[in-house]
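Structural prep section.
Before we set up the soaks we want a predicted structure of the protein with pyridoxal-5'-phosphate in place, mainly to decide which crystallisation condition to try first. Input record follows.
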Amino acid sequence: MSTLEKLAPAASVFDLAKIRADFPILSESVRGGRLAYLDNAATTQKPEAVLRAMDHYYRHQNSNVHRAVHDLAERATMAYEGARDRIARFFNVSREQVVFTRGTTEAINLVAYSFLQPKLQAGDEILLTGMEHHSNIVPWQLVAAQAGAKVVAAPINDDGSLDFDGWRAMLNPRTRFVATGHVSNTLGTINPVAEMIAEAHARGIPVLVDGAQAIAHLSVDIPTLGADFYVCSAHKAYGPTGFGALLAKREHLDAMPPWHGGGDMIRTVSFEGSTWNEPPYRFEAGTPDMAGAVGFAAALDYIDGIGLAAMAAHEHALLLEGTARLREIPGLRLIGTAAHKGAILSFVMDCAHAQDIGTVLDQEGIAVRTGHHCTMPLMARFGVPATVRASFAAYNNQEDVDQLVRGLAKARRLFA
Ligand code: PLP
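Run finished without errors. Recording the tokens verbatim:
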């Protein structure tokens, strides 16, 4: 059974018209016409509930956290720490396991510098897959270079799935760490992360899962997955930009040194030396983004209010429809057709560069992303400089697919 099949459709509770009405920006006119927002893998739009929660925070709760006895400071702290509880519940971890960050990128850097760097030795290997986002490549390269260690990447099959046997064969006594995306932002491929974690753990190797593209589409139960580190960004799950989390095993966080110094991350400071606060605060130096935390919590409430299974089933239907319609377009090549994939359509057309296709689509009110999608090694693997990427969220509808197909027909007329 595929991951998406496991997410049993709950269509009866899925009210698409109401969901669309929850997102004010969807009624914006662009280029003088209807907006088809299909750039959700880059960032999702935000529902009223998130906008209201953040507005409420600044109107009624704002102060600095953890540092004062006055009423507003208490409200701000309650809001911020309440958000931590909410986020912990969503991923089925304890609040001490939730470290707030600026997003996936910062969370990966935190693990690279605080967890891995002190352990890395010359000759060690960090095993990735060939479909990683640059955020899940470059931080490992930076720490590897300092230690004389090496970053290696497992092969990808022609359909965009991971060559699992190839990946497993690359695990060896030099492998010090494994990092993998849960869902590929370019291909939509859903990686078999539970199996990967089991294989790595059988060899004593810790694993980081980049969940940036997963948390709004797949149910993520971190203890069941067994990931040592799971990282995500709020903005790809209907929450605010510049906010995210590292969800980590407690024993790792307890043993990890701080990586940013400043207020809140210390227990004591003197000129002779300082001592560190407990996790998660040890890793949250400085005034945090309280409104970001509140917005992320509201976004997770929003997702739970609709139900991730119903959202995923709807997105999957759009994926099937979009795939079938795009396959009918002459000269269009889909990149990423794995059996287990999320609602992302990446493609190239033989008549024009992806950038030019994107420009025509924009004229028709269709927001897609064009380029390498921060996955340059993957572009090299498929022998293309760039793709057009249409990515779906729960608020997309049939009209969005129709508009995309019409836009592509126009591009063909213009360029072919
Ligand atoms: N990993 C994946 C798979 C992504 O898609 C992205 C963003 O596109 C990132 C990491 C980086 O996320 P952020 O820019 O929010 O830190």
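Observations: The CA atoms of residues 98 and 273 lie 27 Å apart.
Flagged for discussion at group meeting.
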